[in-house]
Amino acid sequence: MPKYGLIGYPLGHSFSQKYFTEKFLQEGIENVSFENFSIPSIEDLDDVLLNNPDLKGLAVTIPYKKQVMDYLDETDAAVKQIGACNCITIRNGKLTGYNTDIIGFEQSFIRHLQPHHKQALILGTGGAALAIEYVLNKLSIPFQYVSRRQQDNTITYSSITESIIDNHKIIINCTPLGTYPEVNECPPLPYEFLTERHYLYDLVYNPPLTRFLKEGAERGAVIQNGYDMLVLQAEANWEIWNAS
User: Which letter does DSSP use for residue 17 in this model?
Assistant: First the structure.
């Protein structure tokens, strides 16, 4: 029986397994399954593949979107450029990597984009952030990375001033901060400088209204959580997995 799955760690509140299980039921897709593979190390992927010969595709989540690159036999052009993968097809033992985060993010992000949303702050520097960077480049939106530690081409949270907030009307959270059950956490920003002209996008979807988004909403900002992005990328994964 064909099997699909998700690799990541931890996977206590995974979106994918629930989504695909319900999709299979609602659409009458039979003799297929979706399983979570919570692996403490990317090296455990070898065992997942060995012990599940019926695997046809994998979704990839935190923290393996970059690390899984070493296990791929082929990649599409976007993955080559981004350096991160969240979707894998398995055919005749060959692993091919794709990035559907870019599809999900772009389609959900542009719905609320307004003409004055001209520059962005990207919070976090992981695999998901690389997909966001790809889309912002495509849309010709300049951006600045923000991280806890000083790195090349980044600024730290402690260095963010009122002027920086004012000049970057888009703020995208690519960190897991605020994810259930740690719902009181949020990126350490000077939220008092937000206005109704800001657009806050959070890749976190559980809870639907994170503290990050709540801080923006209280000041009139446009807000969007990551649920629609997940649905769109999951459907893109399904299309790729089932392409002839």
Answer: H
H/E run at residue 107: helix 101-109
Q: How many CA atoms lie within 13 A of 175 on its CB side?
A: 21
Say whether 65 is catalytic: yes
Give the number of other Cβ atoms within 10 Å of residue 40's Cβ.
8
Across-strand partners of 156?
Answer: 147
The answer on pLDDT for 12 being more than 80 is: no
In SS3 terms, 178-212 reads as CCCCCCCCCCCCCHHHCCCCCEEEECCCCCCCCHH
C-alpha separations of 153 from 19, 149, 156, 214, 232 in Å: 36, 11, 10, 28, 30
Q: Which of 3, 56, 65, 138 is catalytic?
A: 65
Distance CA 193, CA 186 (A): 16
- What pLDDT was estimated at residue 62? 87
Backbone φ, ψ for residue 137 (5° rounding): -60, -40
CA gap 217, 205 in Å, rounded: 16
Sign of CA dihedral 43, 32, 99, 130: negative
What single-letter DSSP state applies at residue 73?
A: S
Q: Please provide residue 144's backbone torsions phi and psi, each rounded to the nearest 5 degrees.
A: -135, 130
Instruction: Tell me the domains of the chain and their CATH numbers.
Output: 3-99 (3.40.50.10860), 103-228 (3.40.50.720)
- pLDDT of 181 > 70? The answer is yes
Closest CA to 91 of 63, 64, 119, 55: 55
Confidence tier at 44 by pLDDT (50, 70, 90): very high
